[in-house]
Design a protein that fits this description.
The chain has eight helices and 18 strands. It has 400 residues and is an alpha+beta fold. The chain has two domains: 119 residues, no CATH class; 216 residues, no CATH class. Strands 1, 2, 3, 4, 5, 14, 15 and 18 form an eight-stranded antiparallel β-sheet that branches. It has a four-stranded antiparallel β-sheet with strand order 8-9-17-16, with no helix packed on it. Strands 6-13 form a two-stranded antiparallel ribbon.
Length: 400
């Protein structure tokens, strides 16, 4: 795309479109107006087509999908179509001709074509429109952390472990970027895809412990047997608590401005990354079933990002800003209540109730599967509860 001149002709087509639209013609053909330029690659790809009307010498010069790609700078997306993607070999066969056997045998193409080399768009044209990966072990990562742990041995019926971890982890992996949320940006510079992992949780507090309730035989109060001990004695309360900061999400512009597989990035206007990150939280949206995870100022409901602040990159041949946003903090709490009843010296009956998500607390995270990290998706900035509802489990065991 860069070396074969397609980017230059894409930019010429953008200029042609702009000038034609000034003359009320929705076409990117060279119609001879001042400032317009011939685009021989498109001429060859569209060969054999009929006219699309005034100012549209070949029908695909007025193709609305192609015009949208030009308007949004998606040179990678349009190059992918010209290379035969989506099982449409027409354009590519027009370029290379029937000497490329798949054009003759699979597409029934018989023309000589324009004589372009079969590797005009990609090194292996037999995989036209399909990804080709390097099989190299070039991934790497790093992890830095500070950990503090405090453990309390059994003491007056209490035992617990509490720890805190500060960490930061970055890495690069191919063929996907490290967060596995989008394809790597470019093989020309793999460091463009160097970023935080899905487990880059900067702050994590974890505590778990048990407490023997001070009632019944051998304990502080009601220290005697009988019915009172049978009812109130032998109970133990357990708890597992976790607090952690949110996981990172790569923010996508949604345009293929550099190639056909890497996102083109975003453009920030009047807002900084730090300000966007500071705006992350939980903002209610009534009974919508989700929340906004960033300040609604930066969202246009039902459309996507507020383009006054965040816009997709639309400059062909470039990446915009590539950055990651960390979701809202998350809190988890599970509890248990256990009753032990001695049957003999060696045999005990244990009755236990476990309360998973004991306080029925929602935990919100960006739902990238729903497009919450894509500026052009109506779900941009939204978060859904990723924590299940409270579950109560009862169990009975005999220990010996």
């Amino acid at each position: 795309m860069f070396e074969n001149g397609f980017l230059t002709q894409f930019q010429a087509a953008q200029q042609n479109l702009k000038i034609n639209q000034q003359h009320n013609i929705n076409s990117f053909a060279d119609n001879g107006y001042s400032g317009q330029t011939q685009t021989p690659i498109f001429n060859a790809a569209f060969a054999g087509e009929g006219s699309g009307g005034a100012g549209v010498p070949l029908a695909d010069y007025g193709n609305t999908n192609f015009i949208n790609d030009l308007t949004t700078g998606q040179v990678g997306a349009l190059a992918n179509i010209m290379a035969g993607a989506n099982y449409n070999p027409q354009y590519f066969c027009n370029l290379v001709g029937s000497s490329f056997k798949p054009c003759a045998t699979n597409a029934g193409f018989t023309g000589k074509g324009a004589g372009y080399p079969i590797n005009f768009f990609q090194a292996n044209p037999y995989s036209a429109g399909q990804p080709v990966y390097y099989m190299d072990a070039i991934g790497y990562s790093n992890y830095n952390a500070l950990q503090v742990d405090y453990r309390q041995k059994p003491w007056h019926g209490v035992q617990f472990d509490a720890n805190y971890t500060w960490s930061h982890t970055l890495g690069l992996a191919t063929p996907n970027n490290w967060t596995s949320q989008s394809t790597q940006y470019t093989l020309r510079d793999l460091r463009e895809s160097y970023g935080p992992t899905l487990f880059d949780l900067h702050n994590v507090v974890h505590a778990n412990g048990t407490y023997d309730l001070p009632f019944g035989k051998g304990r502080q109060w009601l220290n005697h047997g009988g019915v009172t001990n049978a009812i109130l004695g032998g109970w133990t309360l357990g708890d597992i608590f976790t607090f952690q900061t949110g996981a990172p999400t790569v923010i996508l512009g949604g345009n293929s401005t550099f190639n056909d597989y890497g996102d083109g990035g975003v453009i920030l206007n009047g807002v900084t990354r730090s300000q966007l990150q500071s705006s992350v939280g939980v903002y209610s949206v009534g009974n919508a079933g989700y929340v906004n995870a960033i300040n609604p100022t930066y969202i246009t409901p039902g459309v996507g990002a507020n383009t006054a602040y965040l816009k997709p990159n639309t400059t062909a041949g470039t990446f915009g800003q590539i950055f990651y946003m960390y979701g809202p903090h998350q809190t988890f709490n599970d509890m248990s209540l256990t009753k032990r009843i001695a049957i003999t010296e060696r045999i005990r009956f244990v009755l236990q109730a476990e309360f998973l998500n004991a306080f029925n607390h929602p935990v919100f995270a960006f739902n990238t599967n729903a497009g919450a990290n894509n500026l052009q998706n109506p779900n941009f900035g939204t978060a859904y509860n990723s924590n299940g509802p409270r579950n109560i489990e009862l169990r009975a065991n005999i220990e010996f």
